[in-house]
Amino acid sequence: MTEIAQRSAVVAAQGVKVHFGAVKALDGVDLAIMSGECVGLVGHNGAGKSTIVNVINGGLNAHEGAVSYSGQSGQGIGFARVNGVRCVFQELSLSPNLTVVENTRIMHSELTGWNWRAKALGIIRAKLDEMFPGHHIECKSTVGELSIAERQMVEIAITFATVTEAPKLVILDEPTSSLDAGLARQLMDYVRTFVATGGSVLLISHILGEILSTSDRIIVMKDGKVVTSRAAADFSTKSLVEAMGSVVREQTRQTRGANASDAKPLLEAPPRRGHGLAFKAYKGEVIGLAGLGGHGQTEMLLDLYRGFSSDWFPGRDNNVAFVAGDRSLNGTFVLWSILRNLSVASLGALSKTSLVNADREAVLGAEWKKRIEIRTPDMGNPILSLSGGNQQKVLFARALATTASLVLMDDPMRGVDVGTKQEVYSILRSEAAEGRTFLWYSTEMDEIRLCDRVYVFRDGAIVAELTGDNVTEENVLAASFTGEAA
Amino acid sequence: MMGLSASTIRQIVPALSLAVLLGAVFYLQPRAMSYTGLNLLFNLAVPIALATIAQMMIIAVNDLDLSIGTFVSFAACIAATWLQTDPLIGIAMLAGAILVYAGLGVVIYLRDLPSIVVTLGMSFIWGGLAVLILPAPGGIAPEWARYLMTSKPPLVPMAIIASLIIAVIAHFIVMRTTFGVLVRGVGGNARSVERAGWSMLAIRAGAYGFAAFLAILAGILLVGLTTSADANIALRYTLLSIAGVILGGGEFVGGRVSPVGAVIGALTLTLAGSFLSFLRISPDWQIGAQGAILIIVLGLRLLLNRAEKREKGQ
Fold first, then answer.
1. Chain A CB contacts of B7 below 8 Å
2. Given pLDDT bands bounded at 50, 70 and 90, which one contains residue A311?
3. Chain A touched by B313 (CB under 8 Å)
4. Would you say residue B83 lies in a domain?
5. Number of Cβ within a 10 Å radius of residue A273
6. Each residue of A332-374: pLDDT tens digit?
7. Chain A contact for B10, CB < 8 A?
8. What is the extent of the structural domain holding B219?
9. ipTM of this model?
């Protein structure tokens, strides 16, 4: 009992219900987060994770039930912040036109006084150094000039930074989605030290290994309810996935016969930046672009895409499709419906005498809704009514619905749940068997292992090519780090 | 070695175009290279610079104000009538106008209205009020405004000093203070500012109110220059101010603005008019030629931005 009395709940939610129209996002959620514990939160896309996060941080009021902070009940973002609740959102939420220091000022309203710039600079620089030793982020540069991984690091560091009061609860919603393995490791280590000093962390991630190794306790959500809440040690990857309700399918590697070297490659590219290996892609291959995040994989995809389509009449020949990784930046048309977002790349095939055939468009929508299970009652709903993972599914369907023979994927599975991933993987395999070629940049090792052939990138160039059974985590890591001091 | 950063280039191009244009004017008309010459070239730019900064405040929160021109005219009409005869009533009217502007910022946000439509509608209201206040051109400028605009400080002409002061103060407020950071933050990512616990209403009302204050200042100084007012005195300020912001390195969305650039943009636009007169281009063609200058400068900026991006990629 004394133990419980000392470790009071930083946040406690009781019977929280939230609904958006007919959709029940939360259907009576009870959860409490004690000080000094790291709670992992897992669940499918649309299980209600983001919604409960929004309720806890005050951005959303519960329609029923109550949330209390350290025993006091209240509502609103301001109240949650006063009680030490901070949040790193799934989509990056910094102002790209401001400098790192100015973003720090916006996030910390207690940074006042004439010399707030100097104070903010000192605080954020110290925090970045502490959390991500060896980062090369210039705090006076504008956020727009930073890479996506650096932005995520900055946002996380700003959230953990202390101006007058240390945060009591930090909610991390997919914090490592843009970070490579090394940076993710540094972040998780920091989370452990933060928890050891009495802070609490609510960690949401689709990378189960991270959840299992970092959390003290894991909460599993499904269909707007908490289904399980147990100590992390009681779970394994398998039991966790089972608790979420998706079936673990054995990933059978379809080892394809090595392409005859005399076959003509579909695509060839000389070594990038004048060194490293040349690039080749054959028909029907799934090629992985691996390596640490931000080492030139996205640039390679963009260059290939540009090479395929003319600057003046882009996309005329429909031979190449692109799946964007940063969906809010260059993926979704936020004002359009789900159907429009899906069909936009195939409008040429759907139209006759320049007019879009609405019936054929609807058929296409219905087909893909079924095929990849887009969770919506109506394809006419706005794209933003979907959860993040479902939005990404729509983008994926957009590319697959075209007749393109080459599909470029820029880390498209960011924030997509395990079940969906498995579905997409199997679609991908069958499409490849039918002769489509996939170029797949991924930061997740599980996905890289699914590829027929893998190019490992380092410093903007290809440093290794792995095929068949050589595609292993050790080999990829070894190639990513060759020549670097340990 | 170190390449120039995008923001540096954004600052340099406007200044460079102003320098080139100024050089061309001096070449065509060497007598402009004097105290009086410079003052004549630039004194009309002072109110335009203020209106441009006002427009910049609105653009910084991702809105656009199509009523700046008529609002400056309205302020000029009050300055030439009530502010001259009954200063207290005049000040009260102007303060009321600032409140209306702040209210507009709030309404546009709350009702999620397109700012272009709302301000276009408001432009007719300001225009109508200006006609009611001053049905026929006339009125008298307040003594102090007249004195301010015709003063002859030693060495550097008033127009240059005023432009510098405007640029420095605007830079301080928009780029250095918390208020400025918040306003630009709203332009860059309104959601994150809101999530950090700031009042969106207060920030937007502040940005609009500050814009109104600057526009009123522009109106008063304009009357100080022209000595009398007219309900249509500043109609062209609407488009000039937008062009000035963009010319000065600002962008329509994303909260990317530059106060120093905006002042330079306003000076460049004013100078472009004089330059074309010196070239003896007929007034019929001047507006088109002014547009051509604008396109050239903006194209130049685009090219430089692209070059900079390429540099970064390597």
1. 142
2. low
3. yes
4. yes
5. 12
6. 888 888 888 888 888 877 777 778 888 888 888 888 888 877 8
7. no
8. 6-304
9. 0.86
